[in-house]
Design a protein that fits this description.
The structure holds two protein chains of two kinds. By secondary structure, chain A is mainly beta. Chain A is 0% helix and 50% strand. Chain B is mostly beta strands. Chain B has no helices and eleven strands. In chain B, the strands form two sheets. In chain B, strands 2, 4, 5, 9, 10 and 11 form a six-stranded mixed beta sheet that branches. Chain B has a five-stranded antiparallel beta sheet with strand order 1-3-8-7-6, with no helix packed on it. The chains are: A mainly beta, B mainly beta. Chains A and B meet through strand 4, strand 5, strand 6, strand 9 and strand 10 of A and strand 4, strand 5 and strand 10 of B.
């Protein structure tokens, strides 16, 4: 089965620091997403990315967040100045087409202290 | 934006019984409805999905039904097994929202032997 790979699996950072979460998507899958899940809660959409640009973002995805595909392969989520409430599991997801199965990575657990 | 409601939040059944989880959505433009299973500490994994041009879909012990008029869809698991124990999330997405998945709050299913 195709697999989305995320690094790191766990990151602890101090409040106010910048973090970059990385994702290696499935090759030839054209749609990229970031979701987050606060412990014990539902999965929340952050942003979708297609054709090298953001196609949709949620209210959570404010100016502190950014995404890019720096080398046309890896897909990153940057949080510029982390807050305590950013602590969550962040999932990268990937699908090959519109309204097709979104494959989720194993997640990065971000802990802001 | 899209609002997905999911019920019940917890469900306990005996092995061999059926389990039904129900979701409603608010945006009539939503046209893709996947169901994800998430085991503790793991990534969400697709178990079945349905598109708005279909009313029912079945895959072995799992079935999903969609009522577009009422804007609700349901997951049916028959002959439940202990390994079906997990959190199940319904989701909805539409074409003009970057195919972002809007998730319900999840149902924690416990199957007791």
């Amino acid at each position: 089965e195709p697999e989305v790979t995320q690094t790191p699996s766990h990151q602890v950072t101090q409040m106010g620091q910048e973090v970059i979460l990385r994702c290696v998507p499935i090759s030839n899958h054209l749609y990229f997403y970031w979701y987050r899940q606060i412990l014990g809660q539902k999965v929340e959409f952050l942003v979708s990315f297609y054709n090298n640009e953001i196609s949709e973002k949620s209210e959570i995805f404010d100016d502190q967040f950014s995404v890019e595909r720096p080398d046309g392969s890896n897909f990153t989520l940057k949080i510029r100045s982390t807050k305590l409430e950013d602590s969550a599991m962040y999932f990268c997801a990937n699908s090959w087409g519109s309204n097709t199965e979104a494959f989720f990575g194993q997640g990065t657990r971000l802990t802001v202290v | 934006g899209e609002n997905v409601e999911q019920h019940p939040s917890t469900l306990s059944v005996q092995e061999g019984d059926s389990a039904v989880i129900k979701c409603t959505y608010s945006d009539s433009a939503s046209n893709y409805f996947p169901w994800y299973k998430q085991e503790l500490g793991k990534r969400p994994q697709l178990i079945i999905d349905i598109r708005s041009n279909v009313g029912e879909k079945k895959d072995q012990r799992i079935a999903v039904t969609l009522n577009k008029t009422a804007k609700h869809f349901s997951l049916h698991i028959t002959e439940t097994q202990p390994e079906d124990s997990a959190v199940y999330f319904c989701a909805a997405s539409k074409s003009n929202s970057g195919y972002a998945l809007n998730f319900g709050k999840g149902t924690s299913l416990l199957v007791t032997p």
